[in-house]
Design brief:
The complex is a heterodimer. Helices cover about 75% and strands about 0% of the residues of chain A. Chain A has 15 helices and no strands. In chain A, helix 13 runs parallel beside helix 15. The longest helix of chain A is centred in the N-terminal third of the chain and has 36 residues, at about 65-100. The two termini of chain A are about 25 Å apart. By secondary structure, chain B is of the alpha/beta class. In chain B, the strands form four sheets. Chain B has a four-stranded parallel β-sheet with strand order 4-3-5-6, with helices on both faces. In chain B, strand 1 and strand 2 form a beta hairpin. In chain B, helix 7 packs antiparallel against helix 8, helix 8 runs parallel beside helix 14 (about 315-325) and helix 9 (about 230-240) crosses helix 14. The chains are: A mainly alpha, B alpha/beta.
Chain lengths: ~350, ~350
């Protein structure tokens, strides 16, 4: 399967994939890295804590504010970053497979613009001042709404769902929503403009146990569905007619995979704003390392995306002391050199 | 990057505008942005005036409505205060409560609190750092539409009092509220009274003089000025000037260069020290700006941005600086350091 499915999206041709490490070992290694990243995220922060104080706080003993820092701030934030990273990476890998396009990413069907439009609408109308959940709820509604619109457009063209039409529909709906956003912001007061821009930059600062549980509730079944679709996705990556000959229900697979991958992106963007780069590059990094078989790629991307975003978030809130860096800055500044190194790495290590 | 400016009162109003221009996918929206007339927003906090609730049973307990309309209850005057709003920080210092401040933002530069740890930005602080400083009161922005900081701190049991910082009534209400929250009511009363006195003196001294039309350059590209309902607009009127755009209802309007040229201000005020490009040399080199008679004839006055852009305890001084900018004969020895006319002798500069 690996040799056939690599064709359309694996980067680049001269890099040979390494099959030496069994899938279970890859998953174990990535899980260990994710666990280490989570430990580091809970250990490190703007406030320096001793290891004993930290362990006490984890078990709920000791100084009340230390307990709050560890159990109400760092732990949900680290878990949210892990879940969002996993969701975005798997979503991106799925889109890349479905669209057979190396540049596909989770926001390609207008999810981020739809979410941003929902967020901007609540900010400008002032609803976001009333409840802390108004903004994420509206962002999620906007993301799902734009996805439905994109599908509606794509289905109205031709008899079957054409990936190219879907892609184009996503791009134009996205552009339209972005235009609407800036139109609204042009006439909005400056406080709204600033709040909207901060939201669009993305951050995990708002993480809470509630957001983590909502995220986990959506994420676990979605990941299960996509992992189950890994084999049909492999076949689709070769070509839709080939997949159909080999017994895949192409239309149903595409629809479910698109919808679930979009849902993952929508939930992520609702809780943490638009965080770029993870969904595009983590799947490619995994392919460069271990090939394009989605049965291994999807779980690997989930673990690697989680670990990457946890690490990036930890750096964003520790590198400059109390000054939090935007997470997109860290993901790109750390991620791009790593990715370039992976791209340029000698084929046989 | 624009996020570095956030929480500098006026600066952060501008940053949204600049980002709006900078975002690569909004080039087409520029035409709108330049000619924008924002709907009169900010209604959420506009009319909210803090009503003092009667004291609770215990003598030292404090119950006060903040500028977003939320009732904040303290068992006793706050002893450990973190201010995320620079003007509120300055007001606290002016009230003699500098020793109560246990955290500041990275923009606060007052020497009294130089040793106090920073909690990061004003709208994107490190909540962990705030919690680690054990504050019993956090002063935050009432206009922050995301509410994430306030909600998070409130959930962790930290009292948050939000303030509005647009006009001079916000300044006086802020002084009274901050005095009450820190148990310094009498200091607040004195401070408010002395600022009122300063403003009255300025107003009386310019009575009957012809009012020059004034363009206050909040930002120069795209041109943004202070509306008549902002503290800057109010101070301009009080110091004897007339805002060139006193017909706008927006707080911080973006105005078109064409309209500025058409209206020809008598005086251009440039606050310097905050934006690198907000300089007189920049204005002299740009079409539009350099075509203004005020620029050609040397009626450009620079003032320190930190003095004019923060609506706090020093608005009396700001009013005197503006008066000296409009009427050179009022330039006292104390104010002369804050008022400069870099173009007033163009022949010598060439």
């Amino acid at each position: 399967m690996e040799s056939t499915s690599a064709g359309a999206i694996a980067l680049p041709a001269r890099t040979r994939v390494h099959y030496g490490m069994p899938v279970s070992m890859r998953l174990l290694a990535l899980a260990v890295i994710l666990a280490l990243a989570l430990v580091a995220a809970i250990r490190l922060g703007a406030v320096s804590l001793s290891t004993t104080a930290l362990l006490d706080a984890v078990t709920g003993r000791g100084d009340a504010s230390t307990v709050a820092i560890v159990r109400q701030l760092r732990m949900p934030r680290a878990l949210q970053a892990a879940l969002v990273g996993a969701a975005l990476a798997v979503s991106g890998a799925t889109f890349q497979a479905l669209l057979r396009n190396a540049l596909a990413e989770p926001y390609i069907l207008g999810v981020s613009s739809g979410a941003a439009f929902g967020a901007v609408a609540t900010v400008v109308t002032g609803w976001s001042m009333r409840s802390v959940w108004a903004l994420p709820a509206a962002a999620f509604a906007g993301a799902i709404g734009s996805m439905l619109l994109v599908f509606r457009i794509a289905f109205s063209v031709g008899r079957a769902l054409d990936a190219r039409v879907l892609l184009l529909a996503g791009v134009v709906v996205s552009s339209f929503l972005v235009a609407l956003i800036w139109l609204v912001l042009t006439f909005a007061d400056t406080e709204s403009v600033r709040s909207a821009i901060f939201w669009m930059m993305g951050s995990h600062a708002g993480a809470s146990w509630r957001s983590v549980s909502i995220l986990a509730t959506c994420l676990v079944p979605s990941l299960a569905v996509l992992f189950a679709l890994a084999r049909p996705l492999n076949l689709l990556a070769v070509g839709e007619s080939t997949a159909a000959y080999l017994g895949t229900n192409v239309e149903r697979t595409k629809l479910i995979a698109f919808a679930v991958a979009t849902l993952l992106a929508a939930v992520s963007v609702a809780v943490s704003g638009t965080i770029g780069f993870v969904g595009l590059v983590v799947p490619h990094a995994m392919r460069l390392l271990w090939g394009s078989d989605n049965r291994a790629l999807l779980p690997c991307a989930a673990l690697a995306g989680g670990a990457f975003l946890v690490g990036a978030d930890t750096l964003s809130r520790t590198l400059a002391g109390a000054n939090e860096l935007p997470i997109g800055v860290v993901t790109a500044l750390i991620g791009v050199p790593c990715f370039v190194w992976l791209l340029r790495r000698p084929a046989a290590l | 990057m624009f996020f570095a400016w956030t929480s500098r009162e006026v600066a952060w109003r501008v940053c949204g505008r600049v980002a709006l221009r900078a975002a690569p996918f909004v080039a087409f929206a520029l035409a709108f942005a330049l000619a924008s007339c924002r709907a009169p927003g900010d209604s959420a906090a506009d009319s909210t005036s803090a009503r003092r609730a009667p004291r609770a049973g215990r003598g030292s307990a404090i119950e006060l409505t903040d500028d977003a309309g939320r009732v904040v209850h303290l068992d006793a005057p706050a002893r450990r205060v973190i201010s995320l709003v620079s003007s509120a920080t300055e007001t606290l210092i002016a009230l003699g409560a500098a020793d109560r401040i246990v955290g500041r933002t990275r923009y606060d530069d007052a020497p009294e609190i130089a040793a106090v740890p920073s909690v990061g930005g004003g709208v994107d602080p490190s909540i962990e750092t705030i919690v680690g400083l054990h504050p019993d009161l956090v002063i935050a922005w009432s206009a922050d539409k995301r509410q994430a900081v306030r909600a998070k701190l409130t959930a962790l049991g930290v009292h948050v009092f939000t303030v509005r910082t647009e006009d001079t009534s916000d300044v006086f209400r802020g002084i009274a509220n901050l005095g009450r929250l820190t148990g310094r009511d009498s200091a607040a009363l004195r401070l408010g009274g002395s600022i009122r006195g300063e403003l009255d003196d300025v107003r009386r001294s310019v009575a009957g003089r012809p009012a020059p039309s004034v363009f206050f350059v909040v930002f120069n590209d795209p041109p943004m000025t202070a509306g008549p309902d902002t503290f800057i607009g109010q101070l301009i009127g009080l110091a004897g000037g007339r805002s060139l755009f006193d017909d706008t209802r927006q707080l911080w309007p973006n105005v078109s260069m064409e309209e500025i040229v058409r209206r020809q201000p008598d005086v251009v005020i440039v606050p310097v020290g905050e934006f690198k490009t907000n300089t007189v040399d920049y204005l002299r080199a740009r079409t539009g700006w350099r075509d203004l008679r005020a620029v050609r004839e040397g009626r450009v006055v620079t003032v320190p941005a930190n003095l004019l852009n923060r609506p706090g305890a020093n608005i009396g001084k700001a009013a005197r600086v503006l008066r000296a900018a409009f009427y050179p004969e009022f330039t006292s020895a104390a104010d002369s350091a804050n008022v400069a006319r870099p173009l007033s002798a163009p022949a010598e500069r060439r």
